[in-house]
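quick one, two chains, predict together pls
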Amino acid sequence: MTTAIQSPASSQKGFIAGKYLSFQLSKEEYGIAILKVREIIGMVDVTPLPRTPEFVRGVINLRGRIIPVIDLRRKFGMAPSEVTNETCVVVVDVGRDADSAFRVGCIVDTVSEVLSIGAEHFEATPRCANTDGDYIAGLAKLKDRVLILLDIEKVIGDIDPATLAGAN
Amino acid sequence: MSIASGIESLGGSLDRLRRDGQQAAADVVQHMRTVEQQAKEASLDQLARLCRVGAETIAALAADAAGFAGQHKAVLEHVEQVVQFAGKCVAAAANGADLAGIVPPALFTVPDAEEEKHFAETVGMFVGHAIGAIAELEEEILSLENSDKPDETVSGIRRTVHTLKAEFGVLNMTGPQTLCHQTETAIDACSENKQPFPVDVMLQVVDLLKQFLDRLTRDVKAPFGDCEPMLRKLRSLIETATASATEAKDDSRVQMAVSGEFADSLTEFITEARAHLSDAESAMVAFSSQPDNLENINLTFRAFHTIKGVAGFLNLTPLVELAHVTETLLDGARSQRLVFSQEDIDLVLASGDMITQMIQSLEGQAGPMARDWRRLVRSCQMAATRSGAATASTTPAATPAAAVVTAAPAAAAAPAKPAEPEVDKVVPVPAPAAVVRPERPTAAPAAATAAKPAPAAAEHAEGDHKAARVERTIKVSTTRLDMLVDMVGELVIAQSMVLQDPAIQRLDSQSLTRNIGQVGKITRDLQEAAMSLRMVTVKATFQKMARLVRDVAGKAGKKVELTITGEETELDRNVVEQISDPLVHMIRNAIDHGIEAPDDRRQKGKRAEGSLTLSAYHQGGSIVIEIKDDGKGLDKVRIGKKAIEKGLMPPDTDPSALSDNEAFGLIFLPGFSTAEKVTDLSGRGVGMDVVRRNIEALRGKIEIESKVGVGTTFRMRLPLTLAIIDGMVVRVGNERYVVPTLSIEQSFRPAANDLHYLVDRGECVHVRGAVLPVHRLKQIFGQGSGLDDIAQGILIVVEVDGQRSCLFVDEILGQQQVVIKSLGLSRDRVAGLSGGAIMTDGRVALILDVGTLVESAMSV
């Protein structure tokens, strides 16, 4: 159970072949393992959560359930952007087991498509890349572009509920 | 002809004897002689001797009509006793039990004036000596605790008991003789097996003997009374002493395992067994206060029986065995074969506890000690067989006449209070100067009237029981239930979103409005129904408390009468689960500190029995649970002094100047305790702190009302459900917050000249003579929008730990019930927030946790 969940993203630099959801942040295109993604919703009203780090935008009502949303742009140190019609919340489920499982919304500029990425496309992160936090699992070289594969467990794990609450 | 039928005929002749007096005497004599012969053959020597002397005496008496009339009652009484004794002997012999424990009645002899005078003199001499010896005995027992040579003291005690035994023997006082004999054996058993000396039991024996001697000084023929409960205690003492010696080194635990194929049934078994056990426990507790309602015994029996059945299927042998012996014991009471005493109830409860422990062991916790298990199984077995031997035997009850006689004591005792373990209750009131025993109404009518109410009550209860079963239930996992409640909550919000949608509101259609209204009504009904699914009555929790009261009162040596009202009151399941701990603490406190010892109470002119009332009721949208005692009440000054002593209050505070609220609030502080010494019941000062924390976690409140000498009332005010709170919706800038109504005292718009700024202390406002600190929500939450001028907004007065302060908000939007939801940050909370609520527009509003909010505002 534990290894099964971990393997898509974190084992051997976290890559396994499969489907990835691609989305845009600023000018770059990113990918998240589709197994982590629960749903994608349009941008909704966010209630700011006081005393939390800046990248935590607040909480939203996801069909009766309250979940926190984070702004991936802020998280990655990019300039905040205007909310457009394209802006989406990618809802992901992270956590290794039932106890630490938690659902978070990630605000992204726009969602593009679902891609099948095989081992032949995968390339480990180049040395020069920002290794801060190990958020990147690797790169996927497609015909005409490069996809940055995110290790969403690490990204979210970084805002683990405990840190989130204690970060005031 | 068997001895049983001989006894039967003797029992039958009793009726004639009662009616015809002297004429029937010959008949009785003849039967007695028959029994004597049969007893000899069965080598029941004591019985044979008893019959021989009895027959001779009665025959002698019968020769003189006038003399017989004077002794009629005595003869009757004696024959009755012989019949009873014979029944016990036969039953015991049939079960292979020890005959030594059965007390034979005194030999029946013709009262002879000369002899009597002599007897009285002998008794007088003896009593004088015995009183001294017993006083010495008591002293020795008491000195044992501080003795540096305990062994010597114990052998001294044994010598004294032995001498007493011999003297009772000389005087032909078989009852006390047997008692002394058993006591001696018990002392031996304890010292041989290196068991602690049973001080309590020994003192009880001493008391029993003392009371008897006391009666003897007034009347040389005073009866000894029934010492059967005491004997039973001694016997079990001997058993445990011998048993524990061999087992003391055995630290193994009861082991049980379930093979894989039954794993599914196991979970079900565990839940069901728990439910059965809690039913059984409450039934037993109910039975101890209402011994005439046999339905409670039946219920307990059924519970153990079911557990036994399923456990047998799962191959849980130790559990089956324990359930089985308990069942046997209960069966004795069920078939009215034995009078269930308080000890028996304790045994059944102990079995229940052990089964609970064994079930826990199935879930991976440590099981009970194997030696405890063995001891309990044995005690149950003994109690069950004892019962068969001690009360009138059922064997000779074939002819109706005999049945009446033999059943009388059992039936007459059953509807009365259960036989209390206290020694003083066992001994009957001092007998009048009659020759033999105190007068009792003729057995037949007594049995007839007494026996009737019991089955009637049982039938009645059975009827109730059947009616209750008609409501069918199914078991649903709580996760599914919570999911349903959540979805219904969503539906309610979605419905109101539809209703408020501008597009819908623009439509001008009557039928649409009507239909939307209909949907709204159904939604609300649905929500109510879904909520009610989570509601359970507080009954189970309250009944657990009944058991607790019984145990704690016993330990503290106090008499407490518990009254429970409103146990049908429903509360959210989660709340019910969490009030159990606070209740335990408060009830312990009430009994240990509140209610005085029986003697103190009598001195104060109160009833010796303290009364404790546990009640639950609705009040203004919340549930109130009240614990009320009529004990000594809380002494403000004493509490204040203690608080200063423990450094919980500055030393210059005047304790008498404290208000009730301030003083009573002190007892909730951690480490506070007025108890002079720490007992295993309470006194460490942890309890009330736990109580307050638990109740606050439930978003409840606790109030205390107390009057010195009159009593104390603890009142817990709890929300109906954890899921919904009454909240005041406030606005600060663009954001809305929900403040729980329970924490709000008042709100007002401040006048500019009431506001002050204290250097280093921050902002304050003057409210009705008090100066309260002001906290700006905008500042605490670092919000960009919102009013800055306090005079334009609203101040909400909140109370935290008795400290009042004000929260500054822009405006109050209204009051509404909101469903509390977690913020999705699973583990920790954000300081100052207790969760979020989804408002009718679908957005989330944050719910303030006033306690941590004010705390964090102070620390900023």
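The radius of gyration of chain A is 15 Å.
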